[in-house]
Amino acid sequence: MKDSIRILLTTLLLSIAIPTTVFAGCGHLAEPMTPDAIAKRLTPIGKVDAEGGSQAPVALVSEALGPNAGEDRYKATCAVCHETGVGGAPKFRNAADWKTRMDVGIDGMLAIAIKGKGAMPPKGTCMQCSDQELKMTIEYMIPK
Ligand code: HEC
Predict the structure, then answer these.
(1) Which atom of ligand 1 approaches the CA of 123 most closely?
(2) Residue 64: pLDDT band by 50, 70, 90 thresholds?
(3) Residue 117 domain boundaries
(4) 93 Cβ closer than 6 Å to some ligand 1 atom
């Protein structure tokens, strides 16, 4: 009877002791908290953000702008008002409409376009547009 109790106790002790030593010895089971390891774990989250919708921060949507970015953006977003002059919008490449506005220069017009003015909504409604994209768009819409 005593022997069977000792065997039972030994078995119990071993069943606790063996897994404990085995896991403690396995360093790779615990993720190291090095900057590299942390960065690795964060990478997939960054990737998801970059593919996300309009809520993604601009810095993460930093796709390279092609030479036609201004034209593409104008047609997609700005033409709806600037093609016919909705609400007094200066019309596409219309010298008379743009004459006085161009006095402030491209950067001055960019600053106004970002802030919005009268019936012109901030960023012309293109909230995800970078300053560079808006600048290329304005360069495309003003008279040559
Ligand atoms: C909802 C209509 C609307 C849309 C969309 C719109 N605009 Fe405008 N925009 C206006 C109106 C109206 C004005 C004239 C504002 C004023 O002088 O009161 C204007 C003026 C401007 C000006 C001249 C600012 C100045 O120096 O006086 C620029 C530049 C401009 N828009 C750029 C853009 C760009 C770029 C886009 C697209 C990304 C865009 N707009 C989209 C209505 C619009």
Answers:
(1) 38
(2) confident
(3) 69-141
(4) no
